[in-house]
Structure formats: C-alpha cells, structure tokens
Amino acid sequence: MDIDAWVWWLIGAVGLGIPLVLTAMPEFGMFSVGAVAGAVTAALGFGIVAQVLAFVVVSVALIAVVRPIAARHRDGRPGLATGVDALKGRQAVVLERVDGNGGRIKLAGEVWSARTLDTGQSFEPGEQVDVVDIDGATAVVM
C-alpha cells in the first residue's frame, strides 16, 4: 500500500499536536501548522523540497511572529487587584478623627478603622484621604 506524501504530513501534524496538548508548549502547535502547510504543498503536487521548505518557512514564521506577541501579552497584562489590594490607592472620607492612634473612614461604601501613615498627622471628619495600605482590618491613610 502506497501512502501519499500529504497523508504523511498530516500524520506528522497530529504527532506534533500530541505534545502540544500534553506539555502546553505552543511551539509544537506551530510546528504542527507547518506540517499542515507541508501537506497542502504535497496535495498540490509539489516535490519534497517544496514541501520541506513550506514546513520550515511556516514554522519559523509562526515562531518568529507569534511567540513575541504572546510574550508581550503575557508579560504586559496587569494583574487584577482583588480583596484588600483593590482598596490600596483609593480615596476615602473621614468619619471620625483619624490620627496615629486610630479613627474611622468610609472606604468603598464600608466603614473601616484607620490610622495615619505619619503618626504626627491627623484628619478631621469630612476630609478626603488616600489609602496607602491595609494593615489587617485597619486602613493606613495619608
């Protein structure tokens, strides 16, 4: 039984797709797409040199173009702040005098205990303050 070259390329594409799924390494997927390009080239009747060239060109092009874009998106995406980290940097309104010993603020619709970052500083009711940190259940403001 004589198998056409394009079938071998598709078998190679599937073979390269298996490690992609098992290892989550996208390079295998790029090589798999290159093998599909080799299969298309073989199905169109081109020789082995053109098939290998199509495989190499498509694979290298995908690695050269897709990997830097993916790395940029992975590294450039800011993490989503949740919980108390989402409260840092927000503004609050002083409800009860806040100084180095304590006080109360309204932060994100909730009443929080608060203290000032600088122990010598104080804020009176109605003033706006910036939350610089959350220490346990106490907002540190300035």
Task: Tell me briefly what this model is.
The chain has 142 residues and is of the alpha+beta class. The protein contains three helices and five strands, in the order αααβββββ.
The shape is rod-shaped
**Between the first and last Cα atoms, what is the distance in angstroms?**
81 Å
User: What structural class is derived from the secondary structure elements?
Assistant: alpha+beta
Number of helices: 3
Low-pLDDT residue intervals, each spanning 5 or more residues: none
The overall strand count is: 5
Order of neighbouring strands in the sheet with most strands: 1-2-3-5-4
Largest sheet: 5 strands, mixed, barrel
Series of secondary-structure elements, N-terminal to C-terminal: HHHEEEEE
Helix content: 40-55%
Give the C-alpha Rg: 30 Å
Strand content: 15-25%
Mean of residue pLDDT values = 91
Q: What does this protein structure show overall?
A:
It is rod-shaped and about 90 Å long. The chain has helices at residues 5-23, 26-43, 48-76, and strands at residues 91-96, 104-107, 110-116, 128-135, 138-141. β1 and β2 (104-107) form a beta hairpin. It has a 5-stranded mixed beta barrel with strand order 1-2-3-5-4. The longest helix is centred in the middle third of the chain and has 29 residues, at 48-76. The protein has 142 residues and is of the alpha+beta class. The protein is 46% helix and 20% strand. α1 runs antiparallel to α2 and α2 packs antiparallel against α3 (48-76).
